[in-house]
Amino acid sequence: MLSKVVKRIAISIPVLIGVVLLIFIMLRVVPGDPVATMMGEHVNPAMIEKISAELGLDQPLYVQFFKYVGNALRGDFGTSYRLNRNVTQIILESFPHTVKLSVLAALVAWIIGLVAGIVAAIRQNRLLDRLFMGCSLVGVSMPVFMTALVLQYVFAFKLQWFPISGFDSWQAMILPAIALGWNSAGSIARMTRSNLVEILQNDYIRTARAKGLREHGVIIGHALKNAMLPVVTMMALQISSMLSGAVLTESVFGVPGIGRLSVNAIETRDMPLLQGTVIFTTIIIILGNLIADLLYNVLDPRIREGA
Amino acid sequence: MNESVVLDVKNLKSHFFTAKGEVPAVDGVSIQVPAGKIIGIVGESGCGKSMTAMSIMGLLRYPGRVVDGTITLDGRDITHLKPKELSQVRGNELSMIFQEPMTSLNPVYPVGVQVREAILLHQKTTKAEAKQRVLDIFQAVGIPEPEKRYYNYPHQLSGGLRQRVMIGMAMVCRPKVMIADEPTTALDVTIEAQILRLMKRLCAEQGTSIILITHNMGVVAEICDYVYVMYAGKVMEQAETFELFEHTKHPYTQGLLKSIPRLDEKADRLYTIEGVVPNLLHLPKGCSFCTRCDQAQERCFTEKPGLYAAADGHGVRCLKYESGVKMDGE
Predict the structure, then answer these.
(1) Which residues in B lie closer than 8 A to residue A298 (C-beta atoms)?
(2) Contact B317, B306 (CB under 8 A)
(3) What ipTM does the predicted assembly reach?
(4) Cβ B169–A305 below 8 Å, yes or no?
């Protein structure tokens, strides 16, 4: 088990290096000089050159890259151009908001998704099944920003049940959490339902019934654990989609998290800040995948064996 | 058969309601299981023998259901029990083992725990006591190192061991009747004999009756006391095992027995019954076997035969024996 964890972490390192390299190159290839963007229009070109030199942007790309990686390894991700503050510090300040949003959204997604999926599987092809699957289809099909906008318009603007933006009270957290979680809830519900329906056809389910278990005992005791295997992986993988969804949700609802930070960083070509947020997010996603893998190990004895 | 009957199935009809029509998978089957005896149900694939078993267990799933007949277990009608009552009977008084030992155990739980569950469901006992009983039954069904095997997962056991676990699970509550649906079909021939002997011994010890479903006449001859031969959802012939093999009456049974390859007779070609099992949606108007029968006469195609007594306890569904007393109500 431990060697597996170590192995998985080792595999993640090249991925991380690749991501850093990619974001580094991409940021320098996209049009828009960060210094010019920073200074605004009608600025003396000599001034721009001077500041570029100060920031080290005049040096060859590979020098910039190795310098950056060298510093990053020591925990220094540079200074934000726009905010003129340490990137690590900025990220650590906004991260709790994103965590709170993601955890709330994950709770919405997992609880609603699982319950809806199980109920739909038991009531297969009946009214409740159709209703839940319809809702989940809407969730899966709508892009997060649109869900967010619709929820904001209907429940915050028209009905005024919730504040339009912000993230400082629990009322303010509800809409963003639903907006971000609905999509995942939809895919979890659909996957739970289809797995459960399939698992219920298995021979060992018949054995469980023949043993004298009643239907709910069969489902909870024997079908669910098997049906959950792929769903658990997906739930952990959802962490990454939560984070990317958080970018949009946070922007719509004005949540001061990592997502809104990245969007601002892109708009202002704030390269150190953007690199920082991307690397940070990548690490979180890698960890999410690692957890998914390990959970699978815990749940499925056949995989545990092979480890 | 004068012994006390523990399971009495009367005129059981189970139909499947499909888009193409109502399929009579079990069409008026009557079976009597005396206490402590082994009853064989033989027939080709699709003759309704497994469906008969599933109907008795109440395991038929949509679109199939029991439409007529009664199933009486130890004097109690269990045909239309409520789910709660049914679950108290299943695995306790009436248990079943299946054809596929490889897939009949849940892959995510240790086998011992799965057997223990059967005890905990039906008897008030502690987990520790239940575990001890599992270890005892493992010993009884010939699983080596029960203590170690208890914690093994199904994928760590061979097919033979898994079937032993299944038998242990089916026997652990000392049921009155155990249904074994082709328990050895998926196993090696060498294991087959061991498993059959094991079932026979356990049932003799515990006084459990067995309904053994098989397509193997050799297995029947070896361990069954009484045999039912099924075809197209109906019992074609029934008799004590010795009587059936010695005085085979029905042309279908005769065909089945002739199809068994023999070492002591020289033959270039194996005997087969011509044709295929008829589609249950389009059964012949008369005897369901008439299209394949080599002794069929004109009236076999138009008249449905009843089950006639050809000798004491020997029933035959064939017009050739209609001079005998009718054994079923049709």
Answers:
(1) none
(2) yes
(3) 0.86
(4) no
